[in-house]
Structures are given as C-alpha cells and as structure tokens.
From TrEMBL:
Pfam families: DnaJ (PF00226), Thioredoxin (PF00085). InterPro entries: DnaJ_C16_autophagy_reg, DnaJ_domain, DnaJ_domain_CS, DNAJC16_TRX, J_dom_sf, Thioredoxin-like_sf, Thioredoxin_domain. Plays an important role in regulating the size of autophagosomes during the formation process. SUPFAM superfamilies: Chaperone J-domain, Thioredoxin-like. It is found in: Endoplasmic reticulum membrane. The keyword Glycoprotein applies. SMART domains: DnaJ (SM00271). Keywords: Autophagy, Endoplasmic reticulum, Glycoprotein, Membrane, Signal, Transmembrane, Transmembrane helix. Residues 29-93 form the J domain. This is DnaJ homolog subfamily C member 16. It comes from Octodon degus (Degu). It is a single-pass type IV membrane protein. GO terms for biological process: regulation of autophagosome size.
Length: 780
C-alpha cells in the first residue's frame, strides 16, 4: 500500500514539474532575455547580444545552465533582429516560429528530467510525442512563406493534399496509418503532399481556414477545398481525383477519334491518346493531363469497349500493355509511341516533355514565342527560328505542307520551325516582310534570332516568296548551312511587337468562367466550410435584409397613416366648398390615383391672401390659376385634371385668382419677369382687353419668388409650352391674332392648359426659372 502511495506521489510530482517547465518556456520574452527595451534599435540589440553571447557561451561559462541560457539568447536575437518576427511578437506575443523553440525546450527539459530520475519509459509514455509520431511528416512540414511562394504557384501544375495536425490530438493518431499509405501512393503519382502543424504554424492554419485538427484539405489552382468524408484510402483517392477539372481527358472511340486528332490545327497543340484496359481513366494520366493542359490535348481509349478494334488495328496497338501515342500534324501516323506495363510518373513526364510542341507550331501568343524561340544566352547557345508567314487557310495549302515536310526532315537542334498567320498577326508580319508587292497575299520565310526579351531580333527574309517548290527548299537548306558557319548572315535588325493572344477567351466567356468559379466557391463555403468563417458574411447578409425589410415595413405603415388621415370620415356628409371641383377622369388617367379623391382649389382673395401666400410656411408653394368669370368653369375643370396627380404632395396648395378683380396685382408681378413684353399703360387702347386667362403662377411666399406658366398658343398648338418666365412679345392670345380676344371657344380653352402637367413636373424638379420680388404687393 505504501509503495502504491509513493508511486502516485512520484507521478504527481513529475506532472507538476513538467507543467512548471512548460509554463516557464511559454513565458519567454526576448526583450527581457537580452535586457533591452521594446523601443531599442537594431544596433542596441546587436550590441546586447554580443555581450551576453560572450558571457554565456558554454565553452567559456562553466555554469550548468549556461547552455540553456545561451539558447535563449540566440533565439531572442533571432526574433528581434528580424523585423517581421519582431513585429509579430510585438502585436501577437508570438514571433510565428518560436513555437518550435518552445517545443524544443520542453523536449530537452523533459529528456533531462527523465535522465535524472531514471524511471522506466513505459511509466510515462504517451503516443503524443511528436518526435516519434511525426517522423514520417517531417519532410512534408510547411511554413507560411513556403506555402505562399512555392505550394500555391505549384498548385497550378499539380494538386496538393495537406494534413493539418497538432499535439495531443487523439484523432490524428487514428488516421496515421491511412495517411501514410495514401501519401506513399499519391506522391508517386505526382500529387503534392504537405503537413501543417497547427501549434507551430498557427498563421498558416488560420490562412487555410483549418480551425480544428485533424483537417485534410486539397489545393488546386490556388483554391482550397476541404475533405469531409471518412478518412479511408479510397475516399482520399477520390477526393484528390475530384479536385481535378472534369474536362481534362476526352473519351475517344471509333466515332470521334478523327475529329479529336484533327483538332491540332485549331487548338495548336499535339494530341495524346492512351490505350488501356481500365474502364476509367487512370489517375496518373489525369494528373499528367492537368500538368500539361496548356501544351497538349489528352484522350483516352478503353480497348475493351466495342468499336475500339478499328483504332487498335490501324495504329497496331498491343491491348495488353498501356500504350501512349502522340499525334502532331499528321493524324494517320503517331509522332511518338510509348509502351509500358505500369505507367511511371518520371517516364511519362519525360515522354510528354519531349513532345510538347508541334513540328511547326503556330505562334499564337507571346508566351509561346518565348518558349519556342528563346533569347540567345551565349555564342554557344544560339537558337534560330525559321518563321513561315502565310495567309490563313481552312485546309493545309502547298506552301505549309512543304514547310512542314522540311521541318520533319530537319536534324539540327539549334533550329525551330514555326509559322504565323499574317492576317492575325499583322504588325508582327509587316515587321519581317519586305515592303514589296511581290509578297502581297503570298507566303514568305524569315530566319531570326532573338537578342533580348524586349523584342530585339536579327533576321533575314528570303528574297522570293515561299511556294513550297524543291528550289525553295534547297535555297532554305543552303542558307541554314551557311548560317551555322557565319551567324553574320542575319544582317537586318528590328524590334518585334508583342503577339496577340489568339486563343484567349472573349470577355463574356472569361466573365462566365469567373462567375461560375465564384458561385462554386460560395456553394462550397455555404455547406462545407467552418461556420466561424461564415459569420462575417452571414452578418452582412442579415444586416442588409433587416435594413431592407425594415424600410419596407416603415414605408408601408407611413402610407397607411397618410391614407387614413387624408380620407374624410364620410364623404357624403361633407358640404361642398366654393371652388372645390371634381375632375372628370378618363380611362387613361384613371390609373393615376392620388391619395385624395378630389382637388381642393380655393380662391385667392384679400381674406385668404395673407395665410395662403404672405405667411405661407417655408418649403410650401401656392399654385395659382388666372381665370375670368366667363372661363371659370372650363378652366377650373381642366386645371383640376392637370394637377390632380400632384395633390399627393403636402407642400403644394392650389388656388385661383379672378382676373376681373385683381388685374393690377397680376400685371405688377409680371413686371418682374425678365423677358416679359412691355406692360401696357393707360394709353394702350387694348389695356383692359389683354387676355391673361390660363396663366399659372407658382408663388413661394417665404422666399418671395414666383414661376410662371404661359398657356400654349392656340394657333401653334404643336409648339412647346412656355417655360417659367418665358414671355415673348405676344403676351396674350388675343394680341397674337392682332385683335382682342372676347371669350375663347371650347377648343382654345381645352388647349390652354394641355402642357401644365409637364410644367408641374419641372416645378417639382426645381428646373424652372425663378423671378424674385422685393415684397408681396397688397391685393386690391
């Protein structure tokens, strides 16, 4: 019993000491270790480090803790001498990489403690020891800078499978055997492998969105996708395969193989065919197709399917061995063949690399031009490009076929054959072609050597157009033989413009691809990503919806309150007021229903003059119709009809003014109209006969200005109405005819206010001219 108690006490003591050691390691402060302040300069930090390093170096200091102290000093200087690590420590209390140091300190001290107390290893053995468990992951460990600078760019050539792990993770231990098996298989196929330790690389784990361990994710084209199924070998393999685009490899049969192989001219790529017995495309072939998708097109033939006999017989395929054929400009005969019982990544990569380009590829982009015609590095590394400048043709013409046969017979490694469609690359072609009518619409051959990446070349164009005859071939062959001996034959110099990217998708397709990728990312994020990442987006969406529906609800309640206030309790019991008219609506205007069912028009008299004009509230206007006793009924109905749609505004008031009673007041106001006609005087024989009926004034009592509507001339009904203050020499309708107007008929009255609604719209827009007066005159 006592032995058991003593054993428990020893275990408790060991755990306590270990916890204290860990806490002391976590309390690492580089400023305190070096004895400098947080504002210390690099010179002060370096000076303090040298002083402490000489003092605590284990070779000079015999103190038992000298080695430990020297490690702390070195680590502190490593953090503070690096501005990025120092900034991370100042902001987050962690340099981003010091977790490895803390782990190293814990392991060192634990081993030191273990050696001093001599207890059996099984006494305190856990499977969490990273030194043992992570030995297979050491070469795959990723750091943030390595991930950003190497993994992300490389993910455009191959997918990456990454595991996020940490210490004290039970689930991480359970998936170790499966992970090890999958890594050994997929790495041999060309899949990139990575391991992120969430404890040491918290920044990278947060960047990837891995907030729990273990997490397995894939990266392709810089995009991160999480694995959400059970961690078994087949699921992980299918996950990697699902990362790849679905259109990498085309299934080829007897029905479509001619079309597939004939696509070299349009796509400007060699075409690859794999003949195999597996019903599905091998993963290694898909990975190869993804890596070289910009250079070749890939197809797959299942040899056991019915209808594949024609191809296997035509190309003499051994159906029991995996066979890869590469086709270039000739579809009847493969340019290269590879047979193997088991496809190996290195062998397949070497085979594909040797056949990346056509025999005489078309220059369709500047990138392809750089690859096919590299810049001269030295005199021993000269690379010449023989360029055929030819018009575009749907079928192979004789000049191109002769050029192709010449390229096929070429054995010089320093010469590359390419062709250019002169119609698509006009600037490029015009730089190399001589200015002669002999080359118009014909093919020509130029030999060039690039001198720098800015486009400077030395070149020589053959004197005669290229027809593909035997004499042309002999001339070109002789020139290339002389060029090997005397590079000075390329006597002409020029700066070539950049080539236009012929195969780039149009803007609409690029937009559709971007939209599709964005929608797929949103779908993935909505249903599979960690909800912690979704919180900002969800918060934004719900905030926008709340504001939207809140605005709609407030507007709905506001409209209902306005309608309740505007409708009288009982329309039948309200007595009719003087000047209150009911507009006569037609079917066309019945859809324009304001909040009120009538237009309230009051007469402007000496009683209502002060309240309706002089002391009118700021921002309110009184729209006044000028009429006479004889035109009162007709004009009021037309006025009510025109302004009915504007009665919903509480800032507008409607009145009418009798011309028979207040002519002098009106003509006093019209004197302030800038371009008005001369106001008649008492000697004018038509002084009392001028017709102002149909004029409308918008009066702003607070700011002392008015806007004027002049009725349309009945003689010129097709002309536009008068704007605010647009008074011409004919100020009244009677004078326009040269005789007084004695009561207009129904037709002229109907047209007087026909444009009033448009004038009201301009009034509400504030685009009408304003005429200011010093003060409102008395209404006599």
């Amino acid at each position: 019993m006592e032995v058991k108690k003593l054993s428990i006490s020893w275990q408790f003591l060991i755990v306590l000491v270990l916890i204290l050691q860990i806490l002391s390691a976590l309390d690492f402060d580089p400023y305190r270790v070096l004895g400098v302040t947080r504002t210390a300069s690099q010179a002060d930090i370096k000076k303090a480090y040298k002083k402490l390093a000489r003092e605590w170096h284990p070779d000079k200091n015999r103190d038992p803790g000298a080695a430990d102290k020297f490690i702390q000093i070195s680590k502190a200087y490593e953090i503070l001498s690096n501005e990025e690590k120092r900034s991370n420590y100042d902001h987050y209390g962690d340099a981003g990489e010091n977790q490895g140091y803390q782990q190293q300190q814990r392991e060192y001290r634990f081993r030191h403690f273990h050696e001093n107390f001599y207890f059996d290893e099984s006494f305190f053995h856990f499977p969490f020891n990273s030194e043992r468990r992570d030995s297979i992951d050491e070469k795959y460990l990723l750091h943030f800078s390595h991930y950003v600078n190497e993994v992300v760019p490389d993910s455009f050539r191959k997918p990456y499978l990454i595991k996020v792990t940490s210490d004290w993770c039970f689930s991480c231990i359970h998936i170790e055997p499966v992970w090890k098996e999958v890594v050994q298989e997929l790495e041999g196929l060309g899949v990139g492998i990575g391991v992120v330790h969430a404890g040491y690389e918290r920044r990278l784990a947060h960047h990837l969105g891995a907030h729990s361990t273990p997490s397995i994710l894939g990266i392709i084209n810089g995009k991160v996708s999480f694995f959400h199924n059970a961690v078994v070998h087949e699921n992980l393999r299918q996950f990697v395969e699902s990362l790849l685009p679905g259109n990498l490899v085309e299934k080829v049969t007897n029905k479509n193989y001619v079309r597939f192989l004939s696509g070299w001219q349009q796509e400007n790529k060699p075409h690859v065919l794999l003949f195999d017995q597996a019903p599905s495309v091998p993963l290694i072939y898909k990975l190869t197709a993804f890596a070289y998708r910009d250079y070749l097109s890939f197809g797959y033939v299942f040899v056991r399917v019915r209808g594949a006999e024609e191809m296997t017989r035509q190309y003499n395929i051994n159906v029991y061995v995996s066979t890869i054929l590469v086709f270039k400009e000739h579809i009847n005969k493969p340019a290269d063949v590879m047979q193997a019982r088991g496809l190996k990544k290195q062998v397949v990569d070497n085979f594909i690399t040797q056949n990346k380009y056509l025999l005489a590829a078309r220059l369709t982009s500047q990138k392809l031009f750089h690859e096919l015609c590299p810049v001269k590095r030295s005199h021993r590394q000269r690379k010449y490009c023989v360029v055929l400048l030819t018009p575009e043709a749907t079928k192979l013409n004789k000049p191109f076929e002769a050029f192709l046969s010449f390229a096929l017979a070429n054995t010089q490694d320093t010469v590359r054959f390419v062709h250019v469609y002169s119609g698509r690359q006009q600037e490029f072609s015009s730089t190399l072609l001589p200015h002669s009518e002999a080359f118009q619409g014909k093919s020509a051959v130029s030999i060039l050597e690039r001198r720098n990446t800015a486009g400077r070349v030395v070149y020589r164009t053959l004197e005669d157009p290229w027809t593909g005859s035997e004499s042309d071939k002999f001339i070109l062959l002789g020139f290339l033989d002389q060029l090997r001996k005397d590079p000075g034959l390329l006597a002409s110099e020029a700066v070539l413009p950049d080539l236009t990217d012929e195969l780039a998708p149009v803007f609409l397709l690029r937009w559709l691809y971007s939209a599709s990728d964005y929608l797929s990312d949103c779908w993935e994020t909505m249903f599979h990503s960690n909800w912690r990442e979704m919180m900002p987006l969800l918060s934004l969406i719900f905030s926008a919806l709340f504001i939207l529906f809140g605005t709609v609800i407030v507007q709905a309640f506001s409209d209902s309150n306005d309608e309740r206030e505007s409708h009288p309790p009982d329309k039948e019991e309200v007595p009719e007021k003087a000047g209150k008219t009911e507009p006569s609506f037609t079917k066309e205007s019945s859809s324009k229903v304001p909040k009120k069912g009538f237009v309230e028009v009051t007469e402007l008299t000496d009683v209502t003059y002060t309240s309706n004009l002089v002391r009118l509230r700021p921002g309110h206007m009184n729209v006044v119709l000028i009429l006479s006793n004889s035109t009162r009924s007709a004009l009021l109905q037309k006025f009510a009809f025109e302004v009915y749609t504007f009665t919903g505004s509480s800032c507008l008031h409607f009145s009418f003014l009798s011309l028979d009673k207040h002519r002098e007041w009106l003509e006093y106001l019209l004197e302030f109209a800038q371009d008005a006609a001369p106001i008649p005087n008492q000697y004018d024989k038509h002084f009392m006969e001028r017709d102002y009926t149909g004029y409308v004034l918008a009066l702003n009592g607070h700011k002392k200005y008015f806007c004027l509507f002049k009725p349309q001339k009945t003689v010129e009904e097709e002309e536009a109405m008068g704007s605010c203050g647009d008074l011409d020499a004919a100020l009244h309708l009677g004078e326009a005819r040269g005789k007084p107007s004695s009561g207009p008929g129904p037709r002229p009255l109907k047209g007087k206010l026909s444009k009033l609604s448009l004038w009201m719209e301009r009034l509400l827009e504030g685009s009408l001219q304003r005429f200011y007066i010093p003060s409102w005159p008395e209404l006599d």
